[in-house]
Amino acid sequence: MAVSSPGFLDKERIIAGPGFNRWLVPPAALAIHLCIGMAYGFSVFWLPLSRALGIKETIQCGPEVGFWAELFTTQCDWKISTLGWMYTLFFVLLGSSAAIWGGWLERAGPRKAGMVSAVCWCGGMLISALGVYLHQFWLMILGSGVIGGIGLGLGYISPVSTLIKWFPDRRGMATGMAIMGFGGGAMIGSPLAADLMKHFATPLDTGVTQTFVVMALIYLVFMTAGALTYRVPETGWMPAGWTPPPAQIGNAMITQRHVHVKKVWGIPQFWLIWMVLCMNVSAGIGVIGMASPMLQEVFGGSLIGVSQKFGELDKAQLAAIASVAAGFTALLSLFNIGGRFFWASLSDKLGRKMTYVVFFVLGGVLYFGVPGSAAAGNIVLFVAAFCVILSMYGGGFATVPAYLADLFGTQMVGAIHGRLLTAWATAGVLGPVVVNYMREYQLGLGMAREQVYNQTMYILAGMLVVGLVCNLMVRPLADKWFMTDAELAEEKRLAHEKASASVLQRSQANGSGSGAVSPALVVLAWLAVGIPLAWGVYRTLQSAAKFFN
Q1: Phi-psi region of 446 (alpha: psi -120 to 50; beta: other; left: phi over 0)
Q2: pLDDT digits (tens, 9 = 90+) for 212-236
Q3: Using 50, 70 and 90 to split pLDDT, how confident is the model at 84?
Q4: How far apart are alpha carbons 252 and 353 in whole angstroms?
Q5: Which of 29, 149, 317, 327 is 20 to 30 Å from the Cα of 36, by its Cα?
Q6: Which fold has domain 20-58+66-239+501-549?
Q7: What is the CATH number that goes with domain 277-474?
Q8: For the residues of 156-221, what is the DSSP string, one character each?
Q9: pTM score
Q10: How far is Cα 214 from Cα 216, in angstroms, rounded to an integer?
């Protein structure tokens, strides 16, 4: 019986041949993550979109225009609070789509998933551009919020399983490199969007429509290149000179067996790690959301060398401390990104469980100490604490895929990671709600602005205590949860994994596999992602300099 040739996007077409350089895979993952990471920076569009009709001044909607009417109105501008729903949808859809389609991704392979992600994310931006042009917010919700959110989920988890299989000796470092890109996406996209809007703006147009179109096309090129560069290793591939560590007490947390994704909902360890991630992210998102206003309200005029409190400053002084706070926010973004690579790489030495112990213990101490440094007026300690906190927030994201691979095996780690991201979706609601409502409640009680954050910090420290307890309860899995040899063989068949030399040779004859790769190509791939990332770091450092000035 004739066997049909695999399609261009199929997993069989991207099995790497002998001599393939695994260092070509991380820049492919970065190319996708740096693009979808712009989800973090979408707030750069809120102010221009809030005056899309009025251009210079917002045309306010009347009290009769509620949220649903605002989706369709062409008579007044959108409120920033309404636009913020897109941000919420990004992370709700990221978590839910990763959970729903994670199993499909493992079988379809990273190339197909990466291409679907590119079409959804970039196509969503184009639909949003039409929404801005027609002033129909429902199109923006559908485009970037829903379709783009699905692209986020698939793009986010597309490289996880592949990188872990290429770097079994350095799982944390490998996933840290890719997920660092997601944190760095806004660092590139936000200043790029600001420059493009400034270029396209006219007395009759804010330039957002054109900016969406240009960025969608740029992202499509990068994401397509990344998806097409993905390769998966042959079954059983290991780096030269490396052998898996023997099953001893010292590495009992690292299994050589595999769990099927359909079983994870019933495994206690999965829910413990779900809580670990949820608590770490809830606390971190809470800090990100309040860092800038907290700095301004706590330190007030001392940020610009005057003695007045926040409520006593005039308009010019408020603008000056807002500029300082913007530099503080930029500084935090650098630590968020750097922490993803630093902590994930360190977890290869410390172990994943111990790394999270550090996150929760050190983080809890810092959260608890922030009110004291604020009361003492010590800006240096205050800022240093937040920088370390944000590094561990990013590090938590980057370390958790390797934690899952250690406990559940590598066969379906991408799909399991997808289901775990529902914790992120939950935290994206929980963290901001706790922080915002606590702030409003205490302001309503008449508490001074510089003191309203104290109780919030203690609540966030309490979340980390919950995360610490859950992390300490994580143990190696019982034998009953792992796939049998027969089940694993069937899953490998469904995932189109090739162990047979004849099958591999046939795939390579069809142009699917890749053998030795020129070192020059690897250098070019890293330059393609490294130059935009370096530009983003440079622009962010320029903003951060305002804080030190």
Answers
A1: left
A2: 999 999 999 999 999 999 999 988 8
A3: confident
A4: 12
A5: 327
A6: Growth Hormone; Chain: A; (1.20.1250)
A7: 1.20.1250.20
A8: HHTTHHHHHHH-TT-HHHHHHHHHHHHHHHHHHHHHHHHHHHHHH-BTTB-SHHHHHHHHHHHHHH
A9: 0.87
A10: 5
